Amino acid sequence: MSLWSLHQVASQVGGAIHGEGALVPTSLSMDTRTLQPGACFVALRAERDGHDFAAQAVAKGAVALLVDHPLDLPCAQLVVPDTLAALQAWGRTRLSAVRPALVLGVTGSVGKTGTKEMLAEATGAWRTLGNRNNTLGIPEALATLPEGLSGAVLEMGMSTPGEIRRLTEIAPLDAGLITLVGTSHIENFAEGQQGIASAKGELVAGLRKGGTWAHLAADPWCQWIAQQPWARHAKPLPVGDGEPWGWEDYTSLGAVGGAFVLRTPRGKVSLRIQLPGEHQTRNAALAAALALHLGFDPGRVAAGLAAVVPEPGRGRLHPLAGGGCLLDETYNASMDSILACSRALLQLPGGESVAVLGSMRELGPEAPRIHRETGAALKALGLSRLWAYGDHAADYAEGFGLRSLAFPDFDSLRDAAAGLSAIPPGARILVKGSRYWRAERAVAWLLGARS
Description:
The chain has about 450 residues and is α/β, with parallel strands linked by helices. It contains 15 helices and 20 strands.
């Protein structure tokens, strides 16, 4: 079975075809900025109406449109009552038609993408690319899922209750893992961290009967999930101290990653990863434990983990001219991830350890306190200095105390005499922040200034 033509899609999701129904899109896209020639453009009605961009999509090479009314454009169109519902049905039915032997899910407040990559490499599975982890991105990716796959690993994100439940309806899971239940998006949960745990636990609720899910043994909220009536059909696989599965003998290899030993019920396995920081070791241990539990060969698992390299914004390390290094963790930020990345920074060679942090988001009324506590925790870890910017920069700085600076926005951070240019030569620099604050601009500036 090859990829579906519009005729085949229509038979699965309904709708009327206008134009050439034999056309076979090679991908789906909801964004004209990243659309590739040969794609089907999906016109969603959201903050902006995707139908307004359909002509631009055709000009960029779209061969088909998924729309809720016919458009006067020279392009084949599948017209449906609801483009979001049709998109999700397309992804769900395609997965059902070509379903691999194993479909695995990864969620958690931090570390989802890196762990997804490690689990996919450890098992030789197809995986969702980039951050296609929500109720739009996953069906978009599944709609052109290749046939003949042995496995698929899906990253499942959420910002509100019910999102992961919907994802497991689109893509029912055989097994999965939860990296950590933290505080990301806590402003959207009236029950606080328990609400986040319930939402992450939707992955467990969506497992087939007897399916296994791996988690950190020390995570109290994962322990809570395992005790819930809706999780009893699945088998938890706790990984950590006091459990048959765990990791030990971690050795930091500095800029080239780390090495550790995975403890299993059948003996020990030596593993190495190229991702710096002990938090990456925890994620690697989860991925390796689940893969080995599912029956994959230890040599295959070890080689897969060793092959994963950091992506931009997710742990990529840059050496700096004149000494020191920059740890690019700019994709997003939470208190848990900031502290984990700071510990990784401290294990790297170089001079002073400093952080450049954009503010965090979606923390609700607890935001000032969480930023202050994050600043204080950074000082307690041993970071030398802090440059903070954004709406809670002053809270970061108040928690950190002496040798911290607060700026209202990136322009101020960049242009002030005490801003980015004042970071000492040879420093080890962590750059991180919420997506809203686009901390990658700080990375670009620092790399340009110190190349």
